[in-house]
Amino acid sequence: MTCIALFDSGVGGLSLLPAIKNAVPHCDIVYLADHAHSPYGNKDLQWLNQRMEYLVTELQKQHPIDVVVIACNTASTVCLNTLRQTTNIPVVGVVPAIKTAAQLSNNNAIGILATPATIQGTYLKGLIEEFSQSDYVTQIGTTKLVEMAENKLSQQPIELNQLNRIIAPFIHAQCDVVVLGCTHFPHLIDELQQCAPHIHWIHSAHAIAKRCKTLLKNHSIDTTTDQQETLKKTSKIGHTKFYSTANISQPLHTTLEKMGFNDIQHLLLAGS
Ligand code: DGL
């Protein structure tokens, strides 16, 4: 069976899962949440590079992985190029969809909501220079929403007042499109829409799923629609496995089961 591995500091990368499962339903999915070191958004760049390389190597020892998805904008914008040089399997990165936002905006007022590391990084600056139609992009870097998304999946309530305060600069700048440049944030899309229904909140899940499907076409399992339909009928739906580098709470465990994870484990690693 073909296997896709997803990595994130926590549950953020799970926001990509429905689109990936829909695009390649026959694939096994292995998800690694590095909860022992969450959040990544305030980590040193060198540490992030070393950690990503280490996690991919460790997971490869346990699973024959066909495609790696760095399901984290922070790690992707920092580590993608290095990781592609150090591993022999295809690596998909998740980076902020600035180009799409610029194309969708009617008033050239786009915003980006990401972690402080992504906002401060040179990768994002490059994307803005290349694709934004305007000199000014409203940028908010926060790890607070990472915490809120983790809490939501652990079945804790979200304070809309706090969310309203964080996104206020987008309202002030009259942004009509805001890029969710952190995979945790799409978990809060209902709340974000509630706070600012006139803003189009965009993320990269479908683009990433499409990229995985294209890459897997080079592997033994054909991913054409006909083949997928046959596999669906014969119930050969992929197995989904969740690892965390720390103990997870019972409410999160329940959420993961509801999402279809039938195998949830604590992965003990050096530095965990
Ligand atoms: N979900 C990650 C991202 O896309 C990391 C968030 C964090 O751990 O700070 O940036």
Task: Explain what you see.
With 272 residues, this protein is an alpha/beta fold. The protein has 2 domains: 3-94 and 205-266, Rossmann fold (3-Layer(aba) Sandwich); 98-202, Rossmann fold (3-Layer(aba) Sandwich), CATH 3.40.50. Helices cover 44% and strands 17% of the residues. The chain has helices at 17-23, 45-62, 73-86, 98-104, 116-120, 122-131, 144-153, 160-172, 189-195, 205-216, 225-233, 250-258; strands at residues 3-8, 28-33, 67-70, 91-93, 110-114, 138-141, 177-181, 200-202, 240-244, 263-266. The strands form 2 sheets. A 6-stranded parallel sheet has the order 4-3-1-2-9-10, sandwiched between helices. Strands 6-5-7-8 form a 4-stranded parallel sheet, with helices on both faces. α1 runs parallel beside α10 and α2 (45-62) crosses α3 (73-86). The longest helix is centred in the N-terminal third of the chain and has 18 residues, at 45-62. The radius of gyration is 18 Å and the shape is globular. 42% of the residues are buried. The model has no long low-confidence stretch (mean pLDDT 92). It binds D-glutamic acid. Residues 8-9, 12, 38-41, 72-74, 115, 118, 143, 146, 182-184 line the site of D-glutamic acid.
Number of strands: 10
Strand order of the largest sheet: 4-3-1-2-9-10
Shape: globular
How would you state the average pLDDT, rounded?
92
Characterize the main sheet. 6 strands, parallel
CATH topology of the largest domain: Rossmann fold
Determine the strand fraction and express it as a percent band.
Answer: 15-25%
- Whole-number tally of structural domains: 2
Secondary-structure arrangement, i.e. CATH architecture of the largest domain: 3-Layer(aba) Sandwich
Could you give the order of the helices and strands? EHEHEHEHEHHEHHEHEHHEHE
Give the termini separation.
29 Å
Task: Give the number of helices.
Answer: 12
